[in-house]
Amino acid sequence: MSNSRIAAVDVGNDALKANFGKMESELYIPNVIARDIEDRPVIGIEELDDKDPIDNLHIRVHSPALKENNAIYRVGNLATKATNSTELDPGSSKSEEDQTLVMMFASLALDSVTNGEFKSVKNDVLEANYTLGTGLPLREVKEGKDVGYRSKLLGSVHQVEFLVTPKYQGKKVNIKFDEVKVYPEGFAAFVNLVMDNDLNIINKDLIDKQILIQDIGGLSTDIAVIRNRNVDDDKAQGFNLGVSESLEAIREEIYTKHGVELDSRREVVDIITRKNNRHHIMVKGSRTSVHDITDRILLELAKKEYRYLRNVWQRNSQTEICYFVGGGSAVLKDYLKSLNNSLDGFNIEFFEDENESIWMMANAYYKLVSDFIRKNKKEKKDEKQEVSSSK
Q1: Residue 264: inside a domain
Q2: Nearest C-alpha neighbor of 134 from the set 172, 114, 105, 91
């Protein structure tokens, strides 16, 4: 595993967040892709090289793990400008969508060409080896989908070719995985709450408490029940509800009422959560409030999420606290707090730093996969000592 680089990748419904290497490199890419039938035209290749690769990701992906092999994609910010861009649909399974893999391979390829750790073998083809930590919604892990997902990634070579991408045009990356660890998302959030990056316990008082973690994503909500330092699989629940549909509804209503077309759900999230001029958009150059639209739609969703919390708490009455995590929690925070104040008054906690909530899964996968590597090295060392002492 010596030449294997750590990759901790959270393919969130809103965006991909990833940590690489010794935590020295991170990537944030909106989870939007657009199929390209042919190579996109380039106006002046010199002009292209002044641009940021992350804003102009244009790739061909070849992998036996994909349903549609050898397809060309615009990824992330570049895809949001395309008329045929796709974001993950409500009701879809993260583990079964090509989009999840295309996003992951794109991020690994981008890290490969920038980190300088991997060498070209021939013809500008980089050979990249990773030890991957990633996760799936609790519901999918309970259905056993993590096993198929892991085996799709392991044992194959996944090739990404950069097409019209600044700095990296023409480069190819062969991605192989030495090991793939797939974690349930709720448990990952718990690990992040109690451990620092060096895997030291930082939250001693939390370790033996019974707590809930409600992770609200784009397409799903997981409520993990943690007791005795483990996820109680029987009590933990996954729901097919996230913020994506509501964000889509807000986007459509803004278009119908104000004639303003927002590029993606990510832009809607920004309007709801940014520090200044929250719930406002520009209409023909005038700052205009969309509070009436966002409030109505988000309050409706918050009521459903609150109902989930109440039901799980009732079945786990000795719970001491519930932590809300995930990008959806940042969007619904104010609505959930006011509902809780006027209704049950549960002991609930949000992360005031929205960035911390958004990066929680990627950081947790990093800690978990680092721990796995450390234990693996120790076992091998112990085995060697046993062999040498028995000679």
Answers
A1: no
A2: 105
Which pLDDT does position 139 carry in this prediction? Answer: 83
> Is 301 part of a structural domain of the chain?
no
Does residue 153 contact residue 136 with C-beta atoms inside 8 Å?
A: no
E-strand ranges in the chain read: 5-11, 15-20, 25-30, 33-36, 57-62, 71-75, 120-122, 125-136, 158-162, 172-184, 211-216, 221-227, 230-231, 237-239, 280-283, 286-289, 321-325, 348-349
Q: Does residue 331 lie within any of the structural domains?
A: no
The CA R_g of the chain, rounded to the nearest whole Å, is 22
Give the total number of structural domains in the chain: 1
d(CA 322, CA 347): 6
- Domain of residue 140, CATH code: 3.30.420.40
CB atoms within 10 A of CB 375: 10
Instruction: Return averaged pLDDT per consecutive 10 residues of the chain, 391 residues in all.
Output: 84 91 91 79 57 92 95 93 82 88 97 88 86 91 92 95 91 96 84 82 82 88 85 81 92 96 87 90 95 96 96 94 88 95 94 78 92 86 73 60
Q: Record the pTM.
A: 0.86
| Domain, as residue range, for 167 | 5-187
Domain-embedded: residue 240: no
Report the C-alpha gap between 221 and 313 in whole angstroms.
15
3-state secondary structure of 200: coil
C-alpha span between 176 and 1 (Å, rounded): 12
Q: Which of 119, 98, 184 is nearest to 147 (CA)?
A: 184
Residues facing 130 on adjacent strands? 5, 177
Q: Which of 243, 270, 220 is nearest to 80 (CA)?
A: 270
Q: Which of 87, 119, 97, 111 is nearest to 8 (CA)?
A: 111
